[in-house]
Amino acid sequence: MFLHGVSSLLITSAVGYWVVTQAQKEKGQVKKLGMLLGIIIVLVSLVGVGCKIYSLATGCPTGKMVCPVTGKMGPSSGGVSR
After folding, report:
1. Element of type H or E holding 22
2. Domain count of the chain?
3. Which terminus of the chain has a lower count of CB atoms within 10 Å, N or C?
């Protein structure tokens, strides 16, 4: 399951990069919006990969750990922050 989640996030990151490259071909506000959305997609995907790698490195099972970025518990704990 771990590799499935990481591979999905890496594919999403590649899609974000594709959005950025397509936005570079546009002009004006479309270019700015596309670049912004693409960068946000890439960053969120990479943060997700970081959280998954952190959970593997610390030995915490996915869904029961505290994400180092948000400080929130995983989905199975009800999303209570630490």
Report:
1. helix 2-23
2. 1
3. N
